[in-house]
Structure formats: structure tokens, C-alpha cells
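Quick one:
INPUT:
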């Protein structure tokens, strides 16, 4: 359900491989466990802490692989619980403005489409803004999602100013009494200075129309990039005030443990997760389900 099959088989098989039946938890076992955690992208800091916690209670004792996985799942749950938060859409804002940022290919446009479907089904009116004005394909793709979900898409010609597109979208959202406006953005990391200037201008223009907006700035991350996702949050965090995360492509990767590294490092809310390319492949993010899914 959480799309974690590949990650959980890496972790569960890894732990089971170390503990055939029961084994005394010695230094070698701890080291091997730490490697398994790192191989599933939980990150070195988190892996070290999980192993230390296990050693605190069980060092030199006989322990089974099931007990290890239970202990890890409990630890991961405690790290994820504080960050598991859906987007708090405020329907009195008309519109509640969500800026969606992230590296090209991370799944921004797809996530916007999935969110559009989800919130439309909840009875909200949703509008989409094709703020990645540079890539014709990105604009076209968002239009397809608009048709699929029956949500209007505000777009301009290729190369148009992203901030003025955002401005127009907010005007139209106000006129049409829209509940939720989802604004796509560019993600050209090879031109960091240009991207930063563009995103900051978009944020400024949005803020001029509503001083509290954007109400959410959500960063979309591709789980298949593993620890790179951690780096990406730092880079984007220097450009804009990221307020929440969505982790995508958990279905196709054994690196789903990066969720734990992200939660541990940044403590940013995780709103939902992407587990496929289709409109329905968006899941609520629940700490316990995710932790259990991760540890098999
Ligand atoms: P953007 O450049 O950030 O807007 O990324 P896109 O939304 O265009 O997504 C890039 C590719 O990843 C597309 O082929 C999507 O279908 C695919 N994709 C997006 N989310 C997911 C997901 O959760 N799982 C899988 N397997 N593929 C995804």
C-alpha cells in the first residue's frame, strides 16, 4: 500500500540474512545492521542512532531478526510521527495558494495532478498554474492533468514570465472563487542562480497579493535519488522557505529509507507520498504504516 516493496525486501532480507534464527547482538552484528540500514538510504546519522538504540537495550543478548525489525520499526515510527501532516487547506482563503517546487523530473507536475484529483473529490474547487513556463512539455503535461481532473489550468506561451503567470492565476482564482490554487514551478538545477531569482520573484509577486501567501511551499522529491534528496532540500531551502515535502516514486526503489533521513534531518511536514504514475497513486503519509512497510 505504501509502495515500499523494494525497500522493505532490502531491509527485511538484509536483517534476516544477518540473523538466521537467533544471534547474539555483538559488535559485528551491529556493524552489519548499520550497513543494511545505510543500503536502504536511511542515512549514516540515522543508521548509527538506530543501531546504538538497539545496542543500549540488547547488546550481548540473544535476539531474533523479528525483534530487530520490531525495534527498528518502533524507532522509525517515533521519528516519522511528528512530520506526518496532510496539507491544511484553509477554504476561507479563496484561494489557498500552494507553490510546488523541486528539481525537474522529481514528479512535481504528476503530484499536482494527483493533488488536484484528491482535493476535487473532497469537494474543493481547484485551479492549476503552469508556472514552469520554460518547458513546453511541462505546460502541456499540466494541461493534460487539468483535463483529466476537470480543473482549469492557467498557462501562457513558452518563455513567459513565471511571476506574471502566478499573478494572473491568483487573479483568476479570486474571480472564480477557487478554494485551492496549485502553482507548478521550474526546476532547472544546472542554472541555480537563474532558478533562485525566478522562484524568489514568484514568491514576491504572490506575497504582494496576499501577505500570508504562498500558504504552503511544497518540495517534491524523487525517492529513487536516495541521499541526493537530502541535498536537494538544502539547496531549495536556501532559495525559498520550504514548508513541506512530498516523496514520490517510492514504488520503484529500494531507497525509500531516505524518508527517515529527511524527517530526521529537517523535521519538515511530509504531506503525502507518490507510489505510481497514475492519478490514484497518491497516499496519505502515516508514520506507523510507513515504518512497518519499511521493515517488512
Ligand atoms: P516534474 O518534471 O518534476 O514535473 O516531474 P513529472 O511530474 O513530469 O514526473 C517525471 C516522471 O516521473 C514522469 O514520467 C512521471 O510519470 C513519473 N512519476 C511521477 N511520480 C511518480 C511516482 O510516484 N511513481 C512513479 N513510478 N513514477 C512517477
Amino acid at each position: 500500500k505504501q509502495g515500499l516493496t523494494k525497500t522493505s525486501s532490502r531491509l527485511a532480507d538484509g536483517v534476516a540474512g544477518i540473523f538466521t534464527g537467533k544471534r547474539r547482538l555483538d559488535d559485528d552484528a551491529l556493524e552489519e545492521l548499520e550497513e543494511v540500514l545505510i543500503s536502504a538510504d536511511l542515512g549514516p546519522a540515522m543508521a548509527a542512532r538506530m543501531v546504538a538504540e538497539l545496542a543500549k537495550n540488547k547488546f550481548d543478548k540473544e535476539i531474533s531478526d523479528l525483534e530487530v525489525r520490531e525495534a527498528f520499526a518502533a524507532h522509525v515510527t517515533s521519528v516519522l510521527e511528528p512530520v506526518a501532516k496532510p496539507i491544511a487547506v484553509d477554504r476561507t482563503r479563496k484561494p489557498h495558494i500552494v507553490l510546488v517546487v523541486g528539481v525537474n523530473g522529481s514528479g512535481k507536475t504528476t503530484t499536482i495532478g494527483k493533488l488536484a484529483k484528491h482535493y476535487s473529490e473532497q469537494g474543493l474547487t481547484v485551479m492549476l498554474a503552469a508556472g514552469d513556463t520554460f518547458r513546453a512539455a511541462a505546460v502541456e503535461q499540466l494541461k493534460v492533468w487539468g483535463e483529466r481532473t476537470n480543473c482549469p489550468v492557467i498557462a501562457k506561451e513558452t518563455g513567459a514570465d513565471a511571476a506574471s503567470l502566478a499573478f494572473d492565476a491568483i487573479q483568476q482564482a479570486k474571480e472564480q472563487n477557487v478554494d485551492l490554487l496549485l502553482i507548478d514551478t521550474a526546476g532547472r538545477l544546472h542554472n541555480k542562480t537563474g532558478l533562485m531569482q525566478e522562484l524568489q520573484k514568484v514568491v514576491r509577486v504572490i506575497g504582494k497579493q496576499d501577505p500570508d501567501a504562498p500558504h504552503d511551499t511544497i518540495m517534491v522529491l524523487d525517492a529513487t535519488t536516495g541521499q541526493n534528496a537530502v541535498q536537494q532540500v538544502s539547496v531549495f531551502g536556501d532559495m525559498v522557505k520550504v514548508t513541506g515535502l512530498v516523496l514520490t516514486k517510492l514504488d520503484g526503489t529500494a531507497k525509500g529509507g531516505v524518508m527517515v533521513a529527511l524527517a530526521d534531518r529537517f523535521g519538515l511536514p511530509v504531506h503525502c507520498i507518490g507510489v505510481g504514475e497514475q492519478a490514484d497513486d497518491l497516499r496519505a503519509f502515516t508514520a506507523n504504516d510507513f515504518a512497518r512497510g519499511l521493515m517488512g
